[in-house]
Amino acid sequence: MKEKLRKIPSVHELQQNQLFQQAAEQIGEEKVVTSWLRNEVDLLRQAFLENIGPDVHTTEEIKTYLLERLKYKSEYFQEDRLQRVINATGTILHTNLGRANMSEAAVKKVAMAARSYTNLEYEITSGQRGSRHSILEDLIKECTGAEAAMVVNNNAAAVYLVLKGLTEGKEVIVSRGQLVEIGGSFRVSSIMEESGASLVEVGTTNKTHPHDYKEAVNEQTAMIMKVHTSNFKTIGFTAEVPLKELVNIAKENEDLIVYEDLGSGALYDFKNHGIGGEPTVSEALNDGADLVTFSGDKLLGGPQAGIIAGKKKWINHLKKHQLARVLRVDKMTLAALEETLKAYLQGEEGVYTIPTAERVLETKQSIKQRAEAFTDLIHLSEWQTFIEEDVSKVGGGTMPEVTLPTAVVHLHSGNTPAQVVIDKLRTETKPAVVARIKEEKVVFDFRTITEEESKIIAGALQTIEKEMQSLS
Ligand SMILES: *Cc1c(COP(=O)(O)O)cnc(C)c1O
Is it the case that residue 382 has pLDDT exceeding 80? Predict the structure, then answer.
């Protein structure tokens, strides 16, 4: 044992090796790499002492082993953590894949904001301190018709700020049919509890009537809250009180706030294209909501953000709240959001520059052209590809009932199970390709695959087929 321990080279000796030098150069900090090396030497010594060591015996073997470990570690620390991924699922706002892709204009603006000083909290005309909460206010007002607006970190934060800032210690009436959980971590009831407001549930899961609300109002009531049930739909024997009617009920009681958490908050009316029944932000405000909140990175197609829009009286109050500081957004978010909002002001043409909107609106015929270009391009020897019709989902808990007709490609991979192909596409292809399996075939939905990405997928499949053939 002692003899084996003596064969472990010293850290100093290992440092002379070329592999150490390479690792140190890559990482750029010799001290860090030396500490990793020291750690590996200690681990090996310990392993030898416990007689569980790796199968290395000669000095040369031990040396190679330690340097290989070091190489592995330095490569591991240089790997990309946040990586680009090709979304072949067709789900446009894939929550696990980071929801919305930004427009080119937004990307450019983010780069500018990241690189430079900006007037984030500075009024250029007066040279005075400005407010980041107000910097996009005019734009949001223009896009929604709201009297006032502010931006926070995400919609969950927006909901929290509204409840905490305006209803703490008071009662908030919500229909039982709207007590939703979104994305497994956002529950209206829990966020309400956190905010210190008391939830007053009315109605039943499937039906809530105006009188349910009327009977629940008392001196403690501060708000009637409506939650857009983004990610599920009740069908059959159901009744919901329309926003307009809630507004009427509130009018009978001075200073009762009517607030709708819209979730997605479309600025563009997809209903005009026969897609979904999502109320636009303007519609909710027109119907008389005092406040609405919605996400920046759902149907809006911008960065992660939460937008609060509505009556100036309430917004001003929220801007001054301590929590507004806690929930504030950074300059890059505002940069991306600004360009996204401006695109909506440019009308139809602008809307098509926003990838999320463009993908929701793209027709099956147009998607099919990309799928055909892909099947023409790919050269497989035995595997085959077939274009099929299918449907894509919007995703992100948005428009759950909507199915968008699409063109997909099914891969018939011979003796190779679809699961093997899909695993290789994910773990061995750069960027990783995320696809799905249907009836033992790998499915690629071209709604979310660009022309450039088609080529990457084609190349990857050709490589995987060759590899599988060489194994058999
Ligand atoms: C998605 C959603 C939220 C949470 O929004 P985030 O931007 O993900 O924080 C809150 N309420 C509703 C109704 C939603 O659909």
Answer: yes
